[in-house]
Write a structure and sequence with these properties.
The complex is a heterodimer of chains A (276) and B (451). By secondary structure, chain A is an alpha/beta fold. Chain A has a single domain, classed as Rossmann fold. Chain A is built from nine helices and twelve strands. In chain A, a hairpin with a 2-residue loop joins β11 and β12. Classes of the chains: A alpha/beta (276), B mainly alpha (451).
């Protein structure tokens, strides 16, 4: 139960109370052979906030989230989860700790209905048979908490849902699994305008329930619509991290494309500090 | 497009999103949300009345979730056709004979179902049937002379073992199931011949099943008419009580439940079917001596299909089978041991083929090396697919094996009555299979294009 030196998290692990980060990356590096995919990435993920992870193609967004999700062990640095150094030896470890990753394929079974998908792998039993009633009630409550109101029937197969609704089911599944951190990989990439709005409002609601959200996106409209904080990667380096209010779209574009920006003093200051 | 098209489950549309959810505002007013949530919560679907239910049902059929209706209609059409062609078709003797024959196809369809649901195929079931039939027959005949139940237990061990080996080859060596079970088809044909050769009591490769053995009686002996009616009434009463009670409980909990009229309709149709079945069986169908009552094989099939329905529909194992059939990667990420479930499915497939072998041995009163395993394999695939299981995985229920097996039984029986040659029977069955597979494929493509 030792908390690390510069983390004020209490031994109880309840980091929400004092605003300590839920997750902290300290000097995370990752190589693939001679290719340095990530070099000394540092950033913090506070609970109850949406952190956008922005960057151009090849900036290291996917490698970062896969490292957090336990798919790849980092080659250097430390992942601090709830104030304690964490070593995830696979996605199962990360999930057990409360980190759920929603990849673009969403990992839903088209032939199963919404309830069945939300409980896949965690079905409740009664008398050794599936307890559909209890699962349906819980699923209904979770969807209601998330204000997912567009679904006509939670007993319809997910094949019949729209892209945004499928995304909602995937999020609800994460909530159901009591995730503390939900990582979403390009959640709006395949969606139309109204569906995108629906998913973005869902992400906000998720964060308002105290869940930390990392949203990978290179769509700046989406980033500014929901993100509380923005972390920008450029060629495997963390070039800026600050509350979203300290950026504007043009400065983010500068960071994403060149790794520096002269337009925003405060963010620039942080960049200079990090770069030093 | 009519209004309801937009809300059809198969037609996801931007228009399904009520405007309020497109707001980025943190807090929508709770009242409309709750209202919609309540609506969303009454699935089966938003249907409070019979009319609405039928409407939703119509949408489901159009969007590819056709259920059992088309096949039931098809079956009735085929039956009417044969009845017009040959009045003998509807005689009690022929109908009971048809059931006895079809029970083999039904079990083979159920066997294939386990593979198909997982998006695999088991081509070996025809000769696993042969092996199962031989094991039972040899174990209960001299010189072994096991009691009947030990013979069936032996068959269970052997066939489940076959399934385990095939499943292990598929999951551990990653050989496609098509290849493993095709090899199995050849291998077990050899095993059947070998079993007949090493058994000295098998004269000319034939082992008879004693008339007094329960194995023989399974198909060839009948429950008395009185007992048949009593069993029917008890089963129907339990079925009605359980469905009404569970529907009432679901409604009380605010869960999705079909309208009461649908529950009553289901009970009514089941009752009519059951009464018709027992009635037909209780007509004297003996040519020389009186012969009436329900053959034991009918409740036997009913029990097997009921058990499989519970397994597939109400247990974790069954749920995982459907999940793997649709999206193995999602199943794996959900923490399901995908390969283990696959092996278990192949064990069920082989064991069910063994049960078909038991019925086969009973039906013929003997087993011989003539068993046409290749045709039986294909009839198994046909029964499952005609009944409504998908060749693309993830879809299919034991009731589909029942319906598909009955279709094959009716076609086979009807064409034989009409004096059509074996060649014609094969061709007709092939056409029925192709039509069913084409429907499956079209429905799937339509479903995919709509998503």
């Amino acid at each position: 139960m030792s908390s690390t030196s510069n983390s004020p998290a209490t031994a109880s692990g309840n980091s929400t109370a004092n605003g300590a980060p839920l997750l902290e990356l300290r000097g995370i590096s990752k190589n693939f052979g001679p290719v340095q995919a990530l070099s000394k990435i540092d950033f913090e993920i506070p609970p109850g906030q949406v952190t956008a992870l922005a960057g151009d193609n090849g900036a290291g967004k996917s490698v970062t989230i896969k490292t957090i999700a336990g798919l790849w062990p980092p080659d250097g640095g430390e992942i601090v989860w709830e104030g304690k150094p964490a070593h995830f030896h696979g996605p199962r470890d990360a999930e057990a700790a409360g980190i759920t990753t929603i990849y673009q394929d969403l990992a839903l079974c088209d032939n199963l209905d919404i309830v069945q998908n939300m409980f896949l792998g965690h079905e409740r039993l009664r008398h050794r048979l599936l307890d559909e009633g209890s699962m349906e009630l819980s699923a209904k409550d979770t969807l209601k908490e998330l204000r997912v109101v567009t679904i006509r029937s939670i007993r319809q197969p997910v094949a019949s849902l729209s892209g945004g609704q499928r995304q909602s089911v995937a999020v609800a599944k994460a909530v159901m699994a009591k995730a503390k951190l939900v990582i979403m990989d390009e959640p709006t990439a395949a969606l139309g305008v109204s569906q995108t709005k629906m998913v973005l409002s869902l992400i906000k609601r998720l964060a308002s329930q105290g869940v930390a959200v990392i949203m990978v996106s290179h769509n700046l409209n989406d980033v500014f619509a929901v993100a509380d904080r923005i972390v920008i990667l450029h060629l495997g380096h963390m070039v800026a991290q600050a509350p979203a209010s300290e950026f504007d779209p043009s400065s983010v574009v500068d960071y994403m494309t060149t790794g520096r920006s002269s337009r925003v003093p405060s963010a620039q200051a942080e960049q200079a500090e990090r770069g030093a | 497009m009519p209004d309801d098209e937009f809300s059809s489950p198969g037609v996801p549309s931007e228009l399904q999103e009520p405007p309020l959810s497109t707001e980025l505002a943190e807090d929508e007013t709770a009242a409309p949300a709750d209202d919609l949530a309540v609506k969303a919560a009454a699935p089966e679907v938003l249907a409070d009345s019979l009319g609405e239910y039928l409407q939703v049902w119509g949408r489901r059929i159009r969007s590819g979730e056709s259920g059992a209706l088309p096949i039931v209609v098809g079956l009735i059409v085929i039956i009417i056709f044969f009845q017009i062609e040959r009045s003998k078709f509807g005689s009690a003797l022929n109908l009971v004979n048809l059931f006895q024959q079809a029970s083999i196809y039904i079990l083979l369809g159920a066997a294939q179902l386990f593979a198909l649901v997982l998006s695999e195929i088991d081509l070996s079931i025809g000769y696993v049937l042969g092996v199962g039939a031989f094991v039972v027959a040899e174990l209960i005949a001299s010189p072994v002379n096991f009691p009947w139940w030990l013979g069936i237990l032996g068959m269970f061990v052997v066939t489940a073992g076959i399934g385990y080996i095939q499943g292990s080859l598929i999951t551990r060596l990653h050989i496609p199931s098509f290849v493993v079970t095709l090899a199995g088809l050849l291998f077990f044909e050899g095993v059947v011949i070998e079993l007949a050769t090493i058994d000295k009591s098998a004269v000319g490769g034939v082992i008879s099943v004693s008339n007094s053995s329960p194995v023989y009686k399974l198909v060839n002996d009948n429950i008395s008419v009185g007992a048949s009616w009593v069993i029917l009434v008890v089963v129907l009463a339990i079925f009605a009580a359980v469905s009404l009670r569970s529907a009432a409980r679901r409604r009380a909990q605010g869960l999705s439940a079909p309208p009461i009229s649908i529950t009553l309709l289901t009970i009514g149709i089941t009752a009519i079917g059951g009464i018709a079945l027992v009635y037909v069986c209780s007509i004297n169908r003996g040519l020389l001596i009186p012969l009436k009552g329900v053959p034991y094989v009918i409740p036997f099939i009913g029990l097997v299909l009921f058990a499989y329905s519970v397994l597939l529909g109400r247990t974790r194992l069954g749920r995982y089978m459907y999940a793997i059939g649709a999206n193995p990667e999602a199943a794996r990420r959900a923490g399901i041991n995908v390969q283990r479930v696959r092996r278990i499915a192949f064990m069920f497939s082989a064991f069910t083929a063994g049960l078909a072998g038991l019925v086969y041995a009973s039906f013929l009163g003997s087993v011989s090396t003539d068993v046409d395993g290749g045709t039986y394999t294909l009839y198994g695939v046909a029964a499952a697919v005609i009944g409504g299981a998908s060749l693309f995985g993830g879809r299919g229920k034991p009731i589909h094996a029942l319906l598909g097996g009955l279709v094959i039984g009716v076609v086979y029986n009807g064409l034989a009555l009409m004096g059509i040659s074996a060649a014609g029977q094969y061709i007709a069955t092939a056409i029925v299979l192709l039509v069913a597979a084409a429907v499956d494929s079209l429905v799937r493509r339509r479903g995919a294009s709509e998503v």
